């Protein structure tokens, strides 16, 4: 009986989430007739963007938690067979200049093969960047909100979802909250699995240090500090650490620099630096994932330690892939990365069918 009641509560939470999002979207439509017309036509949200497109797709925005959140839709989202294919939902990493541009090779590879949606988390990319409280719950529920928005566009199949670095924690939290809304999970270079990381969940969801955040936000130096962190030399240094090599993607560096110099760009990254976007005991979130999981990571650079996965115990639904690359293997070995991911997805599809399946269809 306990399992039945848990399923009922889960469905009730899903219904409540959809109702909240539908109400917020309805309010937004009332405020803008242009948004109504474009949403009826093909789901577009009219907006003026200063930041150039991060990806070769259609940029849209949807209302969430009092702000607008951006995402990119691939050509495959508008093909006649889009409704019959499983979408791929991409979620970028977190850093001072994060955006969907970090997933360009994956987006471009699958753009014509299947519907691909690349989310830009609140406070990053072309999403609104207000001075507000940013935390893991806000981020994880924006992923759920994006999935509901995808359904509103007709992409009703439960997507495969891929997170990168810290966003893997948000993805895991979203999947645990609503597992039936996703088919499989890909964790690319996830945080929280270092060999010496043995944290347990605490009373506080995040690792936020209020004193550090207050120090970073001090009006005397906050702008100067963020400009230093997001100068081209600083961004190049970070990307070299990510690649584990000086041979970085120069196009990504250019876009990072543009993204980091938009109005409000410092708000979410400063929370990140103060620990406010990290989940305490993130490994426990990964361990509890009920869906097939693909763990992919590089062996080079500053983000190559994932030995903590051995502390999670038996993981029968997991597949681990190592690449002789830095932390973003799809930039250096795009074809190999996507071929291995496709093999995982095929096996996940078999597992889902054998277990009765997850997701809304």
Would you give an account of this structure?
By secondary structure, this protein is of the alpha/beta class. 42% of the residues lie in helices and 12% in strands. It contains 13 helices and eight strands. The protein has helices at 2-31, 33-42, 104-110, 136-152, 167-177, 210-216, 222-229, 232-243, 250-259, 267-273, 282-287, 329-332, 334-354, and strands at 58-64, 67-73, 88-91, 116-120, 160-164, 184-188, 293-298, 318-323. It has an eight-stranded mixed β-sheet, sandwiched between helices. Strand 1 (58-64) and strand 2 (67-73) form a beta hairpin. Helix 1 crosses helix 2 (33-42) and helix 4 (136-152) crosses helix 5 (167-177). The longest helix has 30 residues, at 2-31. The chain is globular. Residues 1-8 and 25-49 have low confidence and may be disordered.
Q: Count helical runs.
A: 13
Order of helices and strands: HHEEEHEHEHEHHHHHHEEHH
What's the total number of strands?
A: 8
Please describe the biggest sheet, giving its number of strands, its sense, and whether it closes into a barrel: 8 strands, mixed
Taken from the alpha-carbon principal axes, the silhouette is globular
Rounded to the nearest angstrom, the radius of gyration is 20 Å
Low-confidence stretches: 1-8, 25-49
Beta-strand portion reads 5-15%
Helix content: 40-55%
List the helices and strands and how they pair.
Layout (H helix, E strand, L loop, with lengths): L1 H30 L1 H10 L15 E7 L2 E7 L14 E4 L12 H7 L5 E5 L15 H17 L7 E5 L2 H11 L6 E5 L21 H7 L5 H8 L2 H12 L6 H10 L7 H7 L8 H6 L5 E6 L19 E6 L5 H4 L1 H21 L7
Helix pairs in contact: 1-2, 4-5, 8-9
């Amino acid at each position: 009986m306990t399992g039945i009641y848990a399923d009922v509560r889960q469905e009730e939470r899903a219904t409540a989430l959809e109702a909240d999002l539908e109400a917020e979207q309805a309010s937004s439509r009332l405020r803008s007739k242009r948004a109504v017309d474009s949403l009826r036509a093909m789901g577009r949200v009219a907006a003026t963007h200063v930041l150039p497109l991060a990806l070769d797709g259609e940029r849209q925005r949807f209302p969430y938690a009092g702000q607008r959140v951006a995402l990119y839709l691939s050509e495959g989202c508008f093909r006649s067979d889009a409704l019959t294919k499983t979408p791929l939902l991409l979620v970028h990493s977190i850093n001072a200049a994060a955006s969907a541009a970090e997933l360009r090779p994956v987006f471009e590879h699958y753009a014509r093969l299947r519907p691909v949606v690349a989310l830009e988390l609140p406070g990053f990319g072309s999403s609104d960047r207000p001075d507000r409280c940013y935390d893991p719950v806000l981020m994880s529920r924006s992923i759920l909100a994006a999935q509901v928005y995808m359904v509103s566009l007709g992409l009703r199949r439960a997507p495969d979802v891929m997170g990168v670095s810290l966003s893997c924690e948000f993805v895991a939290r979203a999947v645990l909250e609503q597992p039936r809304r996703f088919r499989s999970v890909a964790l690319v270079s996830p945080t929280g699995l270092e060999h010496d990381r043995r944290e347990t969940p605490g009373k506080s969801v995040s690792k936020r240090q209020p004193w550090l955040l207050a120090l970073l936000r001090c009006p005397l130096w906050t702008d100067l500090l963020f400009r230093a962190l997001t100068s081209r030399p600083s961004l190049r240094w970070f990307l070299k650490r990510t690649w584990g090599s000086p041979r970085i993607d120069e196009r990504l560096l250019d876009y990072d620099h543009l993204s980091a110099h938009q109005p409000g760009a410092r708000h979410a990254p400063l929370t990140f630096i103060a620990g406010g976007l990290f989940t305490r005991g993130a490994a426990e979130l990964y361990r509890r994932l009920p869906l097939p999981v693909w763990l992919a990571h590089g062996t080079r650079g500053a983000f190559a330690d994932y030995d903590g996965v051995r502390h999670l115990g038996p993981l029968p639904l997991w597949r681990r892939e190592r690449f002789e690359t830095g932390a973003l293997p799809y930039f250096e070995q795009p074809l190999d990365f996507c071929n291995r991911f496709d093999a995982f997805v095929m096996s996940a599809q078999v597992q889902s069918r054998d277990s009765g399946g997850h997701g809304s269809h």
